Amino acid sequence: MTKSLPPGVALRLYPSFAEVRLRVESAEPRLTFTFPPEAWRRVIPQSLALVGLSPASMTLTPQQTGLSLLEGRKVWWRSPEGRQEVTLIRAEDLLVQDQEGAYFNVQKQHLLFPEPPPLSQSDAMTATFELHEPGQGLISYLTQSLSWKALYTLEVNATGNAELTAYAELENASDQPLVPDEVKLLAGQVELSGGRRRMDFSRGILGMVGTAQLARSLPELEEAGEVAGLYSFGLKHPPVLPARSTVTVPFQPVSLQSFQAAVTLLNTFGTYAQHKGVGLREYTLTAGQPLLGAQVMVREQGYTVGQSSWQETAAGESVTFTLGRDPDVTYTRTATFLDEPEADPAIKKRKATYRVTYSFRNAKSRSVQLRLHERISEAPLALEGEVTWSDGELIFEQVLQPGEIRDMTYQVTIPVEG
Fold first, then answer.
1. Torsions phi, psi of 201, nearest 5?
2. Which fold has domain 258-280+321-416?
3. Where are the beta strands (DSSP E) in 288-387?
4. Is the N or C terminus of the chain more exposed, i.e. has fewer CB atoms within 10 Å?
5. What is the DSSP pairing of strand 2-13 with strand 18-26?
6. What value does the mean pLDDT take over residues 281-298?
């Protein structure tokens, strides 16, 4: 005899699959567990295991379902001559036999049944565990019908202060509701070898969970930790997951150690005479907790201003992303060649000197933090002016006041070919 024990189902959700852990007990040295057809089609091969009991063996046996259960029984065939009683011989290709003993194939829409036929046309699967002794344990398996992902919302107020909120989006792609008693969320890269056919989230996963909508407390983060490079979060009072649904709950408190919104200008060093462009809206933040790889929605003063994404980031590491053009911050760049290239024995190349002038304009009614990043392929031999060089870039930062036009000039000597 097999039955589930409270608390019932525990879920460990990963970004593309889930581990289902069902508590069971057996008063005999044999334990059986049956997967409905839709559930078995989503189970990842070789993942079924019995935990906490010592099985001597496990046997998987297909169980007939669907029209196979009607094989050998009388049904009716709707023919051009009228309704005829026939016997369903084989459900796979709808082979029937009439009263005269003739065999032929029919189409399903031409069959009439004495009772509502089963929906599923695939087999259920029964797992039978031979045990060394009776007891309690867990049946564990991986399924592709449950998953989760993190989402973030960044709220920026009128004074430039920001608040970051993390949400967990839990997906139940099955056709049955789930009432988990325990949910753990795991984030990070997990590779599984093999796998089933193309993932199809149209049908169910579990047949053992009731459909009652229980009165439950609001979900809250119970714990956070790290396992083998994966971040782990426990949800206290996990939500009910309705069939074919996506449930979103807050799951991780995030404290921002620093935040800055700026307008960034990204250029590549060139010797062209003049170039014009506009800035990009840029956000840089540092959190006191690890940030998961996720999408982030940004709102400023209650308005949605864009959506971006970032990779997994350790606590205390900064994240920078941009959200498109800012037409109110513009620039004009002018480059002037100062002298003829001359040979430099120290580098075995010729060198040339250029003077570059930027004219920045802030058309906004508020001040903005301006950042210029100009990529340069060669390390400068000499550099003068208001820029610095770091990691292959010339960098300039300045606060532009409302309506300000600001000029900046630098002079650089670089190696040239020829």
1. -100, 30
2. Immunoglobulin-like (2.60.40)
3. 294-300, 303-310, 318-337, 342-344, 349-362, 368-375, 382-385
4. C
5. antiparallel
6. 94
